[in-house]
């Protein structure tokens, strides 16, 4: 039959994002109790890696990215203490998070880290990747907004991260912009240059509804780690919905080691009732995917739109045109103000 | 008019841009460029621009300090070698302007505290970081009106303007800048965020400064203070410009700035380079003027 059968027996490691990427969709307002409840249920479902903390990761608590009700250390400690089999992971974006914060995350029980840079700036991560390895953490290099670099460029950046010590290199579709062929080309290019023992991961966003298809394409091209999120709770239209992906894997004979029905229950019974808005492909999140804009910009743009009267879609398209990348949330307000002045909605200073 | 003779250490983006700035100065003269790679473009360019060069690091400069009467040195290497460079040159009576994040000497943001340093004759003055130079004046402009509990700055930099040294040591940049927001900016707690954006054509340096005041902000006085401070910075960085704000939201004051450079070495988008080298040059000029007037005197070299 089709090539899908060729994936039968492939082992894939699932990494849940709903307690980190999902923080974006909750305006960073997930309580310790909720976090422990969700993580415990995911742990019981056999999900091997669970990422927690502020949506922007270590150092994320800020005016730029919002303040969570608790410190990252409090979240990590509370969750790690309850895990029976799952490893707790964190996100570290150099320029925002630092090695001091990584050390304290480790001290609280984090054992895995995504060290994230924009897809062309891997050389801002050597000290953090090396430090994570020194701590003995499962260490991934995480190339964000991967649609903004071509396959050869991604391969080069991934090779750099590997040279710093990354054990896994991720292609990260932060904008939910990529199509399966884009994913395959990038993962394939990485597979050609990375050492055989270096793993490849894929982190999708569902803004064009391609989360599942892109993740399968990634596995076909050689990825063995897939990030997803129970019920898709994540920035933009959410991450690849983890329970849906697990079901597809089971149909295809891909081995994830998770208990599908338990995972479905976590999504339906715990995550969905937590949602403040239905995380789905709507007009604005579709705009992110269509225009190639960082998924986290969604709620910020909606707020700027309410304040200055410029439609969120117009703001998002302009941010895409100006090639703003992850971390530049301040430029959303700035862009909205500039557009409002041009439209006579705001007085010039 | 007599000029104070200077050495530049580090032949990367910052060191090279400094040559242009110092050559235009009425009181400073660039004499030496120190590198570590004989093949480096930076050293070749410095030679073309009429400077003496050595590829043997600071040790290659030391034997020439006295005969060439070098009195001020600019260090644009890395935090890790700065302390040693500074110790060796201070021993020869050379005043050190530190452009690395080492920050072993007092922190200097010219429109905020340069005068204090000149009066004290500090032998090592630290210039913090490009983001620090671009944002701390605004933090100070708010904190001199009313107390600021927390200040946060976000610097967006064009990828092409960030050299390998800064990239490999991003944490030092974060720590030094955050600390300076408190020590010089006057906020009780400071936080610095940096984003490196690879867009083509390269984006101009952008900085967003947000302050949380303890009490309700006095909008009129804060706005006036910020505008006055921007004028002060524009005296040495003409491309320092307010784009949006100040935006008041509860106790939060947000200011959206951009910095265009003069386009000396890198094109104008690299305002981060200019604000650093211009601030360092202005700092050195202040010391140079005092030395030339005889109001301050550098210590005699220690006998080796």
TrEMBL record, chain A:
GO terms for biological process: L-leucine biosynthetic process. The active site is at 24 (proton acceptor). GO terms for molecular function: 2-isopropylmalate synthase activity; 4-hydroxy-2-oxovalerate aldolase activity; manganese ion binding. Gene3D superfamilies: 1.10.8.60, Aldolase class I. Substrate binds at residues 20-21, 174, 203, 294. Mn(2+) binds at residues 21, 203, 205. Coiled coil: none annotated. It catalyses: (S)-4-hydroxy-2-oxopentanoate = acetaldehyde + pyruvate. Residues 12-264 form the Pyruvate carboxyltransferase domain. The keyword Magnesium does not apply. Its EC number is 4.1.3.39. The record marks 20 as: Transition state stabilizer. It is an enzyme of class 4 (lyase). Belongs to the 4-hydroxy-2-oxovalerate aldolase family. HAMAP family: HOA. PANTHER family: 2-ISOPROPYLMALATE SYNTHASE 1, CHLOROPLASTIC-RELATED, HOMOCITRATE SYNTHASE-RELATED. This is 4-hydroxy-2-oxovalerate aldolase. It comes from Pseudomonas linyingensis.
From TrEMBL, chain B:
It comes from Pseudomonas linyingensis. SMART domains: Semialdhyde_dh. Residues 5-120 form the Semialdehyde dehydrogenase NAD-binding domain. HAMAP family: Ac_ald_DH_ac. It holds the Pfam family AcetDehyd-dimer. It is an enzyme of class 1 (oxidoreductase). It comes from the Bacteria. It catalyses: acetaldehyde + NAD(+) + CoA = acetyl-CoA + NADH + H(+). Transmembrane segments: none annotated. This is Acetaldehyde dehydrogenase. Gene3D superfamilies: Dihydrodipicolinate Reductase, domain 2, NAD(P)-binding Rossmann-like Domain. The keyword Glycosyltransferase does not apply. GO terms for molecular function: acetaldehyde dehydrogenase (acetylating) activity; NAD binding. Its EC number is 1.2.1.10. The active site is at residue 130. Keywords: Aromatic hydrocarbons catabolism, NAD, Oxidoreductase. Belongs to the acetaldehyde dehydrogenase family. NAD(+) binds at residues 11-14, 161-169, 272.
């Amino acid at each position: 039959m089709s090539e899908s059968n060729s994936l039968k027996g492939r082992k894939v490691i699932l990494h849940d994002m709903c307690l980190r990427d999902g923080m974006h969709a909750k305006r960073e307002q997930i309580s310790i109790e909720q976090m422990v409840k969700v993580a415990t249920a995911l742990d019981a479902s056999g999900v091997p890696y669970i990422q927690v903390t502020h949506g922007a990761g270590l150092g994320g608590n800020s005016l730029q990215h919002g303040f969570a009700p608790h410190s990252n250390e409090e979240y990590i400690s509370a969750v790690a203490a309850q895990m029976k089999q799952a490893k707790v992971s964190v996100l570290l974006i150099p320029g925002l998070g630092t090695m001091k914060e990584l050390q304290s995350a480790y001290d609280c029980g984090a054992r895995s880290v995504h060290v994230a840079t924009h897809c062309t700036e891997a050389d801002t991560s050597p000290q953090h990747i090396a430090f994570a390895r020194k701590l003995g953490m499962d260490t991934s290099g995480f190339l964000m907004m991967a649609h903004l670099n071509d396959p050869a460029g991604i391969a080069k950046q991934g090779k750099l991260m590997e040279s710093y010590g990354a054990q896994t290199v991720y292609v990260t579709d932060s904008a939910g912009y990529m199509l399966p062929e884009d994913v395959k080309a990038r993962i394939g290019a990485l597979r050609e240059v990375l050492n055989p023992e270096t793993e490849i991961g894929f982190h999708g966003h569902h803004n064009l509804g391609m989360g599942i298809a892109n993740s399968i394409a990634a596995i076909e091209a050689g990825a063995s780690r897939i990030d997803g999120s129970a019920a898709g709770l994540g920035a933009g239209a959410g991450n690849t919905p983890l329970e849906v992906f697990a079901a597809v894997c089971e149909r295809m004979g891909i081995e994830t080691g998770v208990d599908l029905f338990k995972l479905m229950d976590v999504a339906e019974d715990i995550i969905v009732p937590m949602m403040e808005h239905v995380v789905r492909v709507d007009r604005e999140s579709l705009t992110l995917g269509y225009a190639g804009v960082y998924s986290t910009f969604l709620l910020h743009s909606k707020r700027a739109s309410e304040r200055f009267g410029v439609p969120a879609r117009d703001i998002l398209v302009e941010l895409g045109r100006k090639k703003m990348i992850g971390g530049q949330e301040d430029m959303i307000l700035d862009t909205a103000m500039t557009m409002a002045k041009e439209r006579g909605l705001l007085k010039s200073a | 008019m007599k000029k104070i003779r200077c050495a530049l250490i580090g032949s990367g983006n910052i060191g090279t841009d400094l040559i242009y700035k110092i050559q235009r100065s009425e009181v400073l003269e660039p004499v030496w460029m120190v590198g570590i790679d004989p093949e480096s473009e930076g050293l070749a360019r410095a030679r073309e621009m009429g400077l003496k060069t050595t590829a043997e690091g600071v040790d290659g400069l030391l034997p020439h300090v006295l005969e060439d009467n070098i009195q001020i040195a600019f260090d644009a290497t890395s935090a890790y070698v700065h302390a040693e460079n500074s110790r060796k040159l201070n021993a020869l009576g050379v005043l050190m302007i530190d452009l690395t994040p080492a920050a072993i000497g007092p922190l200097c943001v010219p429109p905020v505290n340069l005068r204090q340093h000149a009066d004290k004759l500090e032998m090592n003055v630290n210039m913090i970081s490009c983001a620090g130079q671009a944002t701390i004046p605004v933090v100070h402009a708010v904190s001199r009106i009313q107390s600021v509990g927390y200040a946060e700055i976000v610097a967006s930099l064009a990828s092409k303007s960030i050299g390998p040294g800064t990239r490999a040591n991003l944490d030092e940049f974060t720590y030094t800048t955050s600390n300076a927001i408190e020590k010089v900016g006057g906020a009780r707690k400071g936080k610095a965020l940096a984003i490196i954006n690879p867009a083509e054509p390269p984006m101009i340096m952008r900085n967003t400064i947000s302050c949380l005041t303890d009490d309700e902000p006095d909008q009129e006085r804060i706005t006036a203070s910020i505008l006055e401070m921007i004028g002060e910075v524009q005296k040495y960085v003409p491309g320092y410009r307010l784009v949006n704000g100040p935006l008041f939201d509860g106790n939060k004051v947000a200011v959206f700035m951009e910095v265009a450079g003069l386009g000396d070495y890198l094109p104008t988008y690299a305002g981060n380079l200019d604000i650093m080298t211009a601030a360092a040059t202005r700092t050195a000029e202040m010391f140079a003027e005092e030395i030339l007037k005889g109001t301050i005197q550098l210590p005699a070299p220690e006998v080796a």
